[in-house]
Design a protein that fits this description.
Elements (H helix, E strand, L loop, with lengths): L10 H21 L32 H28 L6 H11 L8 H9 L1 H9 L11 H10 L1 H28 L4 H7 L1 H6 L4 H8 L4 H32 L3 H13 L4 H7 L7 H17 L11
Helix pairs in contact: 1-2, 1-7, 2-3, 2-7, 4-12, 4-14, 5-14, 6-7, 7-11, 7-12, 8-11, 10-11, 11-12
Length: 313
C-alpha cells in the first residue's frame, strides 16, 4: 500500500512536476503549426481600447481551424499529464499491487462520483445575476430565451465547445487533479495545496498577453493594455483556482470543480453595479443573499464522505 506517513515526493519534485504539467498543457498549442497564432508585424495606432480588424493572412484564437487544432493539442496534453501521474505512481508502488494501481491513480485524480450539494455552491453565488436574467426574461424557457441562439449556437458552436466543455474539463484535470496529486504525494498541507497550486493555473494564462499586444496594434499603448489585462486575468484565475482546489480537496472528485468552471464560463464575472443599473427600480437583494448563502454553505456543502484529500479525524 502507499504510505500515508512518508511523502513519496520531495517538495522540489512536486514543484517541477507542476511546472511540467503547465508547460505540457500550454506548450501543446505552440507545438502544432495549426494551433499557433499568426499576426502581422505592422504597428497600428488605434484609439485607446479599440482592437484592430483581422488581416487576411492572420490566424487568431477564435478562428475555427485554430480552435480545432488547439482542442486536439490540449486533449493530448491532458492525457500525457495523466500518464505521467500514472507512471510516477507505478514507480512508487512499493508492494507491487499492480491490480490496485489503476484504481488508486483513478481515485487520486478525482475520477469519482460526487454528491449533489457541492454542485450547487457555485450557482448559489450567482443568485444575483440569475435574478437579473429572470427580470430580463432571458432564463431558459422565458419569453426572451431562444433555443436556437442560446443553446445550439452558443454551446454547440466550435467556440462554445472550447469555452464550455473542453477547456473546463482539460484544465481541471491538469491544473487540479494532476497538480494536486503531486503536491499531496509530497506531503503538502491543505493550505499550501489550496493557495499555492492555483498560481500555476494563473501563470498558464500569461501567454494571452502576446495576443492582446498584437490585436491592439503592437504599440506602447497595446503593451500597457496587454500587461494590465494579463495581471488582472492572473489575479482572478488564481482566485478561481483557490476555490476549485478547495472543492476538489473537500469532495475528492473532479466533478464539482469541472461543473463550477463550466458554470462560471457560462455566466461570466458578476458585474453587480452594471446589472443593478439596468433595473434601478428593483431591489436586487438577491446579490447579498447569494454571497451570504455561498459563504455559509461553502464548507458544509463541499465535503463528501470518503474524500481522499480531506479525511476527517
Amino acid at each position: 500500500m502507499y504510505s500515508e506517513t512518508l511523502p513519496l515526493l520531495s517538495t522540489t519534485s512536486a514543484h517541477l512536476l507542476a511546472g511540467l504539467f503547465a508547460f505540457t498543457y500550454v506548450g501543446s498549442i505552440y507545438v502544432s503549426k495549426g494551433a499557433r497564432l499568426r499576426f502581422s508585424k505592422r504597428k497600428v495606432n488605434l484609439p485607446e481600447g479599440q482592437a484592430r480588424l483581422k488581416l487576411q493572412n492572420e490566424r487568431w484564437r477564435d478562428d475555427p481551424d485554430v480552435i480545432k487544432a488547439r482542442l486536439l493539442a490540449v486533449s493530448i496534453a491532458t492525457l500525457i499529464c495523466c500518464l505521467i501521474v500514472f507512471i510516477m505512481m507505478k514507480n512508487f508502488n512499493r508492494d507491487h499491487e499492480i491490480h490496485n494501481l489503476t484504481a488508486n491513480a483513478w481515485r487520486r485524480l478525482g475520477f469519482t462520483w460526487s454528491n449533489v450539494l457541492p454542485l450547487l455552491i457555485t450557482p448559489l453565488l450567482y443568485v444575483g445575476p440569475l435574478y437579473v436574467q429572470f427580470l430580463e426574461k432571458t432564463l431558459p424557457f422565458q419569453e426572451d430565451w431562444n433555443f436556437q441562439d442560446d443553446v445550439l449556437f452558443r454551446f454547440l458552436s466550435i467556440i462554445g465547445l472550447r469555452n464550455y466543455l473542453v477547456a473546463p474539463i482539460t484544465e481541471e484535470i491538469v491544473f487540479r487533479a494532476c497538480v494536486l496529486t503531486v503536491y499531496h504525494l509530497a506531503g503538502a498541507s491543505r493550505k499550501k495545496m489550496i493557495f499555492l497550486s492555483p498560481v500555476v493555473f494563473g501563470a498558464a494564462h500569461l501567454h494571452h498577453a502576446f495576443e492582446t499586444y498584437h490585436r491592439y496594434g503592437r504599440t506602447a499603448t497595446a503593451a500597457k493594455r496587454a500587461i494590465i489585462s494579463t495581471v488582472i486575468q492572473f489575479a482572478y484565475t488564481s482566485v478561481f483556482g483557490f476555490y476549485c482546489c478547495y472543492l476538489f480537496l473537500r469532495s475528492g472528485s473532479l466533478i464539482p470543480p469541472i461543473t463550477a468552471h463550466m458554470f462560471c464560463n457560462i455566466m461570466g464575472i458578476p458585474q453587480p453595479s452594471y446589472e443593478i443599473s439596468l433595473m434601478p427600480d428593483r431591489k436586487l437583494s438577491a446579490y447579498l443573499l447569494g454571497v451570504i448563502g455561498f459563504a455559509c454553505m461553502l464548507k458544509p456543502w463541499s465535503y463528501t464522505d470518503g474524500s481522499l484529500y480531506w479525511q476527517r479525524n
